[in-house]
TrEMBL record:
Subcellular location, record wording: Cytoplasm, Cytoskeleton, Cilium axoneme
Species: Gasterosteus aculeatus aculeatus
Name of this chain's protein: Tektin
GO-annotated biological processes: cilium assembly; cilium movement involved in cell motility
Biased composition (Polar residues): 388-405
Keyword Cytoplasm attached: yes
Family membership: Belongs to the tektin family.
Amino acid sequence: MSVPPAKPGLHHSVSEWTSNNQQLSATAQHEQLVSMVIRQEGRSLRNETNCKTTWDESDTCRRLRDRLWDVARRKEELETCAQKVDTEMEALTLSKEQTEQALAATALPLEVSCECLTLRDGRRGYELAIDPVDQQLKQEVALIERMQKVLQQHVDRAFEHLCVLQEARHQLTADLQNKMDALDIDMSCLSLTVQSPQISLKTNPTRIPSGSSNPQEWSQFSQYNVARAQEAMHVSQQMREDMSLTRVQLQNELDTQRRATEFSLRKRNHHEEQARDELEWQIRNTEDEMAEMERDIHGLDADLQVKTASLKLAHTRLENRTNRPGMDLCRDEVQHGLVEEVHQLEATILTLKQKLSEAQRSMQKMKLHHSRMLQDLSRKQEALSLEQRSMNTRSRLAATSSTDKTPPLLVPLTNSSGRSSLQLAHSVRHTMEVQQLPGTQNLSFGKTWLINGEDTRTTVHVTTSQII
């Protein structure tokens, strides 16, 4: 049997085969060792990274909870401050409206004072005098105009400060809204887990957004808003106190001036009545004297006629006796008696004429003065009527003041932000105290009012010469 031919190719020896097997075994052992080391390192890395990730997530949740507490505390502070601002805005609005009502209430006293001045300008002659009533009325008009100016200034300042409070409230509202949004975002972040469906990879999540602030700036911003609102509220409280005090002081001044004016008016009316009564008495006496003078003038005229007749008789006798003839034309006792009688009658007639002329002049003067007194009496009666009309006009002030003693109704208000008014514990109590100062002629008027639970007292001293 023949041997088959050998196949072409490389044949290895047994030693090579053995070396190859040993090499494969050594390589397997090395790779197994490397794999074991890698596995151990991988397990260690997994444990380490799991712990690190778990700790980081826990620390992040803790920081989120701390941040939520900080933001919530700041949010409560902002809400409390915003409520106080709303309350202060309501109180300032109420005080502003009370000041506006006080300003509107000055229209009637001003109208009454001007009407009294206009009525008293209707006096004529010497009755149109610059008396204390005119001075008091002008002082009252000047006081009311000053009151209107001061109250209007307070109203304007209150309106401007309401705008400041509204701006502070707007800043607080914006900051509060930001805090609420931040709370919502942080709470949603705190609620996320690795199983949440909303998580995903984002592009460059570690970037710093524009407009970012640090914690100090964040805290200072809210503190600035709160401090600004608190300062505005402090100014508003001071403004409300000033307005309340100004209203009471001006009302006291107006009441004092009104009493002084009414006292001067009553005093002037009394003087007018006295002057009228005196003038009426003088007119009656003058009329009686004129009647007596009229009778005396008639008597003087009758006596003058009698004396003239006697003079005619004496003249006639003398003239007739000039016709005696010869030696009978003698200047005898009869002649001397007639001449003396003529001289006496002529002197008597001259005296009677002078006295009659003097009586007639006096009568004319009395008539003229009587007409003047009648004219002045009519003026005095007209002036007295105007004084009475002025007093009746000022009675409207007394009716208004008695009506104002009823407690005012507090109507719910709405501030400039459009929010409904809050419950304001606002009460006003007026107490009038009258005290006689020992050893003086002065009266002390004290007024106490209670505003928001705080007592305030104001005392005005008025002399008795100004009031009745």
